[in-house]
Specification:
This protein is an alpha/beta fold. The chain is built from seven helices and nine strands; from the N terminus they run H-E-E-E-E-H-H-E-E-H-E-H-E-H-E-H. The protein is globular and about 50 Å long. Bound molecules: hypoxanthine.
Length: 267
């Protein structure tokens, strides 16, 4: 059992969340929906570094949403901060050790599909790992497969639930392929044209390491991108982190409603 999982379990005082939600850039407001929350800063969790990115908090919060015990992670560990993929996957491994079986990931992404305007929500149907890193490199960790199947990384049943919730709540929800890049630079227009030809609909700098670790551990994964900007070369303005954050905050209400409906509908 990991020291991180032990510290989290001690802080939860008998609560046993079955679901974890990871919040991306500008999406932190979702944590405010938690009722009766217990909060745990990363500095109290062995092996969890302090996040270095503006707009990314650093805490876990456990509470209830839609009557369900949920663990919410605000602030993730990006490879572009200098972290190994293994560090990016640490929270997921701790969640699995706590008995969590369902992982809901959110992120901010650039829109490659031409019809994606800023504020679009996109369910990940699949991903392309272009980070040249993988959190499973090295010794096989307990409970993980050496060569995990990745033919359905994003759970078809959870995706169907997300689509049903979106329909019922009148929230527009697209579905597409996410390309995960190392960053921290945004892409060049030529790179975006390349990604478009590779079949990517959105591009970002997170999510892939967490999904890989979760699948190796047998967790079911759902991931949703907020398209915060048109990808490089497709819009008129230069890309800007502040704009990414602002669009994330603008879409956070719709995303929060979608997540809440998904949590309420989980079996
Ligand atoms: N590219 C990569 N990551 C991103 C983008 C983008 O355009 N927008 C938000 N995260």
């Amino acid at each position: 059992m990991s020291a991180a999982a032990d510290a989290i379990r001690a802080a939860l005082g008998g609560r046993a969340p079955g679901v974890a939600v990871v919040l991306g850039s500008g999406l932190g407001a979702f944590a405010e929906r938690l009722e009766d929350a217990v909060r745990l800063p990363y500095r109290a969790i062995p092996g969890f570094p302090e996040p270095t990115v503006a707009g990314h908090g650093g805490e876990l919060a456990c509470g209830t949403i839609a009557g369900r015990a949920v663990l919410v992670q605000s602030g993730r560990f990006h490879l572009y901060e200098g972290h190994d993929a293994e560090v990016a996957a640490r929270p997921v491994r701790a969640f699995a050790a706590l008995g969590i079986r369902t992982l809901l990931l959110t992120n901010a992404a650039g829109g490659i599909r031409r019809t994606f305007e800023p504020g679009t929500l996109m369910l990940l149907a699949d991903h392309v790992n272009l980070m040249a890193r993988n959190p499973l490199v090295g010794a096989v960790q307990p409970g993980e497969a050496r060569f995990p199947d990745m033919s359905a990384p994003y759970d078809p049943g959870l995706r169907a639930l997300a689509r049903a919730v979106a329909r019922a709540r009148g929230i527009a929800l697209e579905e597409g392929v996410y390309a995960g890049l190392l960053g921290p630079t945004y892409e060049t227009p030529a790179e975006i044209r390349m990604l478009e030809r590779l079949g990517a609909d959105a591009v970002g700098m997170s999510t892939v390491p967490e999904t890989i670790a979760a699948r190796a551990l047998g967790l079911r994964v759902l991931a949703i991108s907020t398209i915060t900007n048109k990808a490089a070369g497709l819009g008129l303005a230069p890309l800007d982190h502040e704009e990414v954050m602002a669009t994330g905050r603008e879409a956070a209400g719709r995303l929060g409603s979608l997540l809440e409906g998904i949590l309420a509908g989980l079996d």
